[in-house]
Design a protein that fits this description.
The complex is a heterodimer. By secondary structure, chain A is an alpha+beta fold. Helices cover about 30% and strands about 45% of the residues of chain A. About 5% of the residues of chain B have low confidence. The chains are: A alpha+beta, B alpha/beta. At the A-B interface, strand 5 and strand 6 of A face helix 1, helix 5, strand 6 and helix 7 of B.
């Protein structure tokens, strides 16, 4: 790896989705987005649902939506582990809107959900909302 | 002595069987390749997660109270055994060897005075264990093992239910029994401990895991999120290995069956021809001796 390039990997349980090099990658950390440049200090962070942006120069080359997961930075580069990831430009806005609506209805329809159930449904809404946000207002 | 017609029927029947077994072999071979590809593709995630877990585990090792999923309940009284088999048979000793391994383990644990509970994934395992240990089975997971492509979400659902049982205090230790895919010919029945997480082998740590990480938000929160995922990944990888092993075992079994059928056809054909000749000879003799008697 060249000193000014950051090795970046996006891995889902099923396969390695993306393995590339970039100048900078911005990941949606649980305590706010953070940019990872080459030679970043080692860090492990939880991710919230949001968009991973791969930068080439000052342009965003790739946008990927992740529904939470982990990011690990070490001397070899950045690894993002995400259970669900998809390219933002492949998301259909109408479908994303529908999914958010469905998720909200699921919560509204649930009769006396247990605490686990409620947390699960709320999480689904959160993910759907972030997903819609990702398509509608790309940053 | 069977009549010629009977022999002909039998030969045809065996030929039909051979067609079926050789078709099954081909199907298993192509499914095997796909299953192997899945298993290989899924490996990086598991490895990364395990490395991250090892780092975190080291970081919280000094704190007195680690999360229970990591350190266990401190008891070993109730052991939950997850038995993962295939949904379908006709794959040699694949299922029975898993079940045999599970039985041995159950007996061992019971002799040590532990309570054993079972979760069965895959129909075959449940069917075979139900007779003997039916009352130990607390859950049967249907419809995963037979899938064309096992999805992570399936494993995650199983893991989630396990975690819920664990948190409800239903068991102290959990392990999964499955067949490790060594090669097409060899599957090895293996038991892998899931809860508490077994300590990472010391050899891996010393290499690249040296870096001092910053944790965001903090070790515990990350661990609480990571441990259930790790469980899911462990189950997922076991299921994938099982799927590949099942197809491998089926391929070998069907290959043998096809060869046996071929041998049988040869033998039957030989017998058929001998009988036919004997009949002809007999008829000739009858005609000749009849003619001579005149």
């Amino acid at each position: 790896m060249a000193e000014d390039r950051l090795a970046f990997e996006l891995v889902s349980p099923e396969r390695v989705i993306l393995a590339t090099e970039a100048e900078m990658v911005v990941v949606p950390g649980i305590e706010g987005d953070f940019g990872v440049l080459p030679l970043h200090a080692p860090v492990v962070s939880l991710l919230r649902p949001g968009v991973v942006r791969v930068y080439e120069g000052s342009d965003v080359k790739t946008r990927l939506f992740v529904a939470g997961g982990f990011a690990e930075v070490n001397e070899r580069g950045l690894t993002v582990l995400a259970e669900h990831a998809e390219a933002v430009d492949r998301i259909d806005p109408a479908e994303a809107r529908q999914r958010l609506k469905n998720a909200e209805e699921d919560l509204a329809d649930a009769k006396e959900p247990s605490e686990d159930e409620r947390r699960r449904l709320e999480r689904a809404i959160e993910i759907a909302r972030a997903r819609l946000e990702a398509v509608e207002n790309p940053t | 002595m069977p009549s010629l017609k009977d022999l002909r029927n039998r030969i045809n029947a065996v030929k039909q069987t051979r067609k079926i077994t050789s078709a099954m072999k081909l199907v298993a071979a192509s499914k095997l390749r796909r299953a192997q590809e899945h298993a290989v593709a899924a490996r990086p995630y598991g490895e990364r997660l395990a490395a991250m877990l090892a780092n975190l585990a080291r970081a919280v090792k000094d704190t007195p109270e680690g999360p229970k999923l990591l350190v266990g309940t401190g008891r070993e009284d109730v052991h939950l055994l997850v038995v993962a088999t295939a949904d379908r048979g006709l794959c040699g000793s694949f299922n029975s060897s898993i079940v045999r391994g599970a039985r041995r383990r159950i007996r061992e644990l019971q002799e040590q005075g532990r309570t054993v509970k079972l979760v069965c994934i895959g129909r075959k395992g449940r069917d075979m264990l139900r007779r003997e240990y039916g009352d130990l089975i607390v859950e049967y997971v249907d419809g995963i093992a037979g899938k064309r492509r096992i999805e992570y979400a399936d494993a995650a659902a199983v893991a989630e239910r396990l975690v819920r049982r664990f948190e409800a205090g239903e068991f102290d230790v959990c392990s999964i029994v499955f067949n490790r895919f060594k090669s097409v010919l060899v599957q090895q029945t293996t038991e892998r401990q899931l809860i508490p997480v077994p300590a990472a082998e010391g050899t891996e740590e010393s290499g690249d895991g040296r870096a001092i990480y910053e944790f965001e938000p903090d070790e515990r929160t990350i661990l609480e999120d990571l441990l259930p995922r790790n469980l899911a990944v462990q189950i997922y990888s076991a299921l994938l290995e099982n799927a590949a092993g099942e197809q491998g075992a089926r391929m070998t079994a069907m290959d043998n069956a096809t060869r046996n059928a071929g041998e049988m056809i040869d033998k039957l054909t030989l017998y058929y021809n001998r009988t036919r000749q004997a009949m002809i000879t007999k008829e000739l003799m009858e005609i000749i001796s009849g003619a001579e008697a005149l």
